[in-house]
């Protein structure tokens, strides 16, 4: 496994997805995610898989949901405007509980925005972009190596919990080529969704103890119904308030039951830090660098980096923040994750924003300056 | 060999009283009741064309050919 | 036919939600007759629908069924067919579903020629939402969003599909139910993308606003205005005024089926891999 490669973040996502058993991709060209489609177009036919260029992002999302109904692991990739277009069908996948993975290489918006510039403007859209209450897992890698491993994990979490999983990349991570040396811990396993138990009546939306009903692939002899209407355990539409409430609470609550398995957070010199930086994605690279140089100067600063950004790791943030002098939340947006951090610490520690919305990455220097002001 | 005979039934619990079978039966087998639901009034006229079955939007009409008995 | 519907419908879901005299039930009947004639195993059929009155059809039929989002049924179906080609995939859409919100997906599905069969319920109105005009509502008709009469020109769905490259295009009506079954059977047997446009009727939200006294009267209108395509060819143009053709309208076997073409991609990719 210890082979070194030069890999871009976008290519790493593709490699990770393939390692997890993805055999279907549908997408629409959009900067800065296009290399993902290019790589799938090359790699999938070699594995007998399907690459499909659809007419738009709405169709791409529909096609991967359709493919997933047959048990095929399916992925799409997009950016800003395309991600907005996908939201309705992401909501569909969430309520119909059909596994699928969406790689969103963030660019600055709204609208056409800055197509070739990085951003973290979709932090909230990834969680709340569809109408209604819907569950979702969102994972934000910060290196090419991690993009490989975490995209693989995204596929597996999607299969395990029957939920759409979004891999939140950005333009910098997507296009950055870096040396990647895979180690044993990067090994991506292939995990498939749980199927119906033989000899037991199949309820496609059963209120199971673990919150995740079994999934019957189309064409395996279980003729059942999938709908975006709110449904009961049988999968058929219902208006019955008790049944609606039961379904919606199970669907939206299932991830909470498995938080430990889903959450992944990195702590860098956080224990004895006076100032704590909370950052994700490419901004966390700058934050990491700032921590390294400040520590070399003997300054007590640390970082908490949510890798799984949704469900938001409130407990990790709260625990790490206890007794700190201040928290800094650098983001390439006007302040999205900061609200979650404030919610987690609930006024016990002052929280400072550091935002850039000019299409450029927040530099280690800017973070250092703010840390030094606060120390 | 006599004329073929058919048994025509309407499931009154499902009939929505749309009047399609009444309007399109070429042999006027159907009439309507006080709820405007279809009633098989003159089954002996049925020639088994199954137009009613095909056009009933609610699957409540069944046309079955009656088996001729040996002495019938 | 007898009790064929008991074999193909989910009888515990009946009666269906469609209004008295609605054409959707007739189309569903014609469809299950087609499946019976085709002899397909129910486990091997995938039925995909969009949103609207027609979209509810999948809930009633005992196949692998999926009721998708508005306008996107073809996109979902494309994924299903590509990922599991052995499934027989049928797509059900309304007129608003297929040619308004889903128009883009429709023309691209026609262009690709993936082996699926789409049945479009064209009742010329948005029924579920209470009678708004659709892209197929004729001019000078009344709708809740056209209280002074419609002004928009209407789409000819079948011609649109032929123009977009569909390789099997037919038009039927809910009145000509036997013909409809024939057209669905032929569409399903056609190796490529097949479209069956069904002229049907919405007695409540179209009929009542446009001087049709009953569902039967609307069926009668279909009977009187639908002209067999073969016959239409020999008729003077002025006699076709206000009428429409029914039957098989277009068929081509020259364009290869999509998965066949994709097989070549897989072959080329594997040859490159070996080198």
Explain this structure to me?
By secondary structure, chain A is of the alpha/beta class. Chain A has helices at 9-19, 34-46, 57-69, 80-96, 123-128, 144-161, 171-175, 241-257, 259-262, 281-296, 314-321, 337-345, 364-374, and strands at 4-8, 24-27, 50-53, 74-78, 100-108, 114-118, 137-139, 164-170, 177-181, 225-227, 265-268, 275-278, 301-306, 308-310, 326-331, 351-355. Chain A has two domains: 4-186, Rossmann fold (3-Layer(aba) Sandwich), CATH 3.40.50.970; 264-374, Rossmann fold (3-Layer(aba) Sandwich), CATH 3.40.50.920. Chain A starts with a strand and ends with a helix. The longest helix of chain A has 18 residues, at 144-161. In chain A, a hairpin with a 5-residue loop joins strand 5 and strand 6. In chain A, the strands form three sheets. In chain A, strands 2, 3, 4, 5, 6, 7, 8 and 14 form an eight-stranded mixed β-sheet that branches. Chain B is built from two helices and four strands, in the order E-H-E-E-H-E. Chain C has a single domain (4-274), classed as 3-Layer(aba) Sandwich (Rossmann fold), CATH 3.40.50.970. Chain C contains twelve helices and eight strands. In chain C, strands 2-1-3-4-6-5-8-7 form an eight-stranded mixed β-sheet, with helices on both faces. In chain C, strand 1, helix 3 and strand 2 (64-67) form a beta-alpha-beta unit. In chain C, helix 5 crosses helix 6 (103-112). The mean pLDDT of chain C is 96. Chains in contact: A-C, B-C. The A-C interface holds A 23-24, 26, 42, 45-46, 48, 50, 52, 54-56, 58-72, 74, 88-89, 92, 218-221, 223-229, 236-237 and C 13, 42-44, 46, 48, 58-59, 62-69, 72, 74-84, 86-87, 104-105, 108, 262, 265-266, 268-270, 272-273.
Helix-strand blueprint:
The complex is a heterotrimer of chains A (375), B (72) and C (275).
Chain A: E1 4-8, H1 9-19, E2 24-27, H2 34-46, E3 50-53, H3 57-69, E4 74-78, H4 80-96, E5 100-108, E6 114-118, H5 123-128, E7 137-139, H6 144-161, E8 164-170, H7 171-175, E9 177-181, E10 225-227, H8 241-257, H9 259-262, E11 265-268, E12 275-278, H10 281-296, E13 301-306, E14 308-310, H11 314-321, E15 326-331, H12 337-345, E16 351-355, H13 364-374
Parallel strand pairs in A: 2-3, 2-4, 4-5, 5-8, 7-8, 12-13, 12-15, 15-16
Antiparallel strand pairs in A: 1-9, 5-6, 7-14, 11-13
Chain B: E1 6-10, H1 20-24, E2 30-32, E3 38-40, H2 51-55, E4 61-65
Antiparallel strand pairs in B: 1-4, 2-3
Chain C: H1 4-8, H2 23-38, E1 45-49, H3 57-60, E2 64-67, H4 73-83, E3 88-94, H5 95-101, H6 103-112, E4 117-122, H7 157-164, E5 168-173, H8 177-189, E6 194-199, H9 203-207, H10 215-225, E7 226-228, H11 229-233, E8 244-251, H12 258-274
Parallel strand pairs in C: 1-2, 1-3, 3-4, 4-6, 5-6, 7-8
Antiparallel strand pairs in C: 5-8
Helix pairs in contact in C: 2-8, 5-6, 6-7
